[in-house]
Amino acid sequence: MSKALDGVRILDFTHVQSGPTCTQLLAWFGADVIKVERAGAGDITREQLRDIPDVDSLYFTMLNHNKRSVTIDTKNPEGKLVLEALIQKCDVLVENFAPGALDRMGFTWERIQELNPRMIVASVKGFGPGPYEDCKVYENVAQCAGGAASTTGFDDGPPVVSGAQIGDSGTGLHLALGIVTALYQRTQTGRGQKVLAAMQDGVLNLCRVKLRDQQRLERTGTMKEYPQYPNGTFGEAVPRAGNASGGGQPGWILKCKGWETDPNAYIYFITQAPVWAKICNVIGKEEWATDPNYATPAARLPHLKDIFAEIERWTMTKTKFEAMQILNKYDIPCGPILSMKEIAEEPSLRKTGTIVEVDHPTRGKYLTVGNPIKLSDSPTEVKRSPLLGEHTDEVMTELGYSPEQISALRTAGAI
Ligand SMILES: CC(C)(COP(=O)(O)OP(=O)(O)OC[C@H]1O[C@@H](n2cnc3c(N)ncnc32)[C@H](O)[C@@H]1OP(=O)(O)O)[C@@H](O)C(=O)NCCC(=O)NCCS
Questions:
Q1: Whether residues 33 and 179 fall in one domain
Q2: Can you state the subunit structure given in the record (predicted)?
């Protein structure tokens, strides 16, 4: 079966997490992703957080499926020529080096355009143009600079970063969208273009609702769905809202049976307005459905703390899965707090290919997250990550190099 990005060749100059997430997605959609790594060393994550000695780490394997690996020393003059040949052959160059690294290597936008005017050059950087544009950035720096940390956590505690890698993987997603959009535009213009996804911008995009709230706060001085209302105080900036829902449907995380010993025996419970009467019935507070202090969303806002305390009295008598089953019967929106162990063992996620078991020649079997985006005409088959330089000879041959030339380049340390 054909794949959506069949025929698209990606020169993958990415490392660590943000860039590799992007190119992995493109590979899953069918692009031929050729990962260029430093000869002898490779992507630094191959050896980071290793759980098996001398074997590519899960960090690396889980971000580099379906790619080919070639090793080129791009600072070696002959290595540069190999890279030039690749630039001429590929449609997209994706990189997430520190600012200026690609230029220092001699591959400026102008030079790349000379070599291949159709080339799309896609970059992840920590910041866009401005005071921080030269800074190196990792995940949590982006979460802090993009507004996620200041708005996450509890009001009486410090800023908190999320386990979701919105700075790295989130920006990789943004970049992937920019690349396919640029590929589409190229079908009209015939020209390549630069695509930039700055991590601060990507995180801020995901924190859009908090900038909405900043303006609401400035205009009205309060936000009634925040836990600070009605007794706490609001300052000048959007405060941390604990586990409150972002929108107009108040929600909170509530204890379930077993919470004393199981750190994940909790459920997220949303008091959605259309099902308020059903909620009242389920928790045995039928009178709240008509009591003017509780009957309307506006009347409930000053009492949210008491309302959730009452609902929790009910959820504590059920496991999170029992509560889920009962509440779903009444269309009451809720979600169990699933541990990574529970997610890894969930049969439905295996069935859809969202969790996949992959075999690797030196590591053996491991679990990974498959393609979260499902296309009906372009199914994803998750293939193991490449060993360092596994495809150097294969790709060099495709570029037209003879076995003798390949051997000479290897002796010269260029590949
Ligand atoms: C992630 C980051 C902080 C890592 O920094 P780092 O480990 O110092 O790596 P750099 O990107 O600076 O690259 C290091 C050097 O390797 C060189 N290099 C990379 N591949 C090479 C190759 N195949 N052959 C020869 N040299 C190579 C680069 O040219 C660069 O050299 P220079 O500093 O002399 O110009 C940095 O790359 C960065 O800020 N990237 C953008 C933001 C980002 O993606 N962050 C998220 C990471 S998950």
A1: yes
A2: Homodimer.
